Amino acid sequence: MNEHASAARQVHWPEQREDVLNALRALGDRDYQEQHWRSGQGWPDLIAAVHWLIDDTFIDQAGVRALIPQLFRDEQEADRVQLVVDALLRVLDDLGPTAPDPAYLDHPTWISVLHAANAALQVLSPGKENS
After folding, report:
1. Cβ–Cβ contacts within 10 Å for residue 38, how many?
2. Alpha-carbon Rg of the chain, whole angstroms?
3. pLDDT digits (tens, 9 = 90+) for 4-25
C-alpha cells in the first residue's frame, strides 16, 4: 500500500533500517544459515547479523521502542523486533559471544529466533516478495 511506502521513507535512518532488515532476513532463513553459517562461509555471517541488529542500534540498552521513528515506523514494528532481540539474547546469554556458529544454530531455542525474525520481516516489509 502507498501509505506503507511513504511511512517507510519517514524513518530517520533508512540505511540503518536496511541493515536491520538484512539481519532479520539472515536470522530468519534456516536454509541460508545451514548452507553458510554452518560452513563458516557466506555474508552476512552471524556476527554481522548480530551487530546490525543489536550492537549498531544499541537496542539491548535503549529498547526497541526508543528507536521509533529513527528505525521503526510504529509500536507494532518495534514490538516484533523486540521479540527477535529477546530470543537472540537468550541464546547469546546461554552460549556466550565466542561459541562457534553451529552451536547457536543447534541451540534448542534457536527456532524462536527463526520464527521471531520471520514474523518481524512480515511486519517491517509488507508487500515485499523478496529482498
Report:
1. 14
2. 14
3. 444 445 899 999 999 999 999 9
Q: Which residues, 6+ apart, have CB-to-CB distance to 82 below 8 Å?
A: 59, 63, 64, 65
pTM (2 d.p.): 0.86
Cα separation of 121 and 128, whole Å?
Answer: 9
Reported as type and span, the H/E element at residue 75 is: helix 75-95
Residues with Cβ within 8 Å of residue 43, at least 6 apart in sequence: 36
Long-range contacts of 77-82 (CB under 8 A, 24+ apart): 77/120, 77/123, 77/124, 80/116, 80/119, 80/120, 80/123, 80/124, 81/20, 81/24, 81/53, 81/120, 81/124
Q: Which residue has the cell 526508543?
A: 66
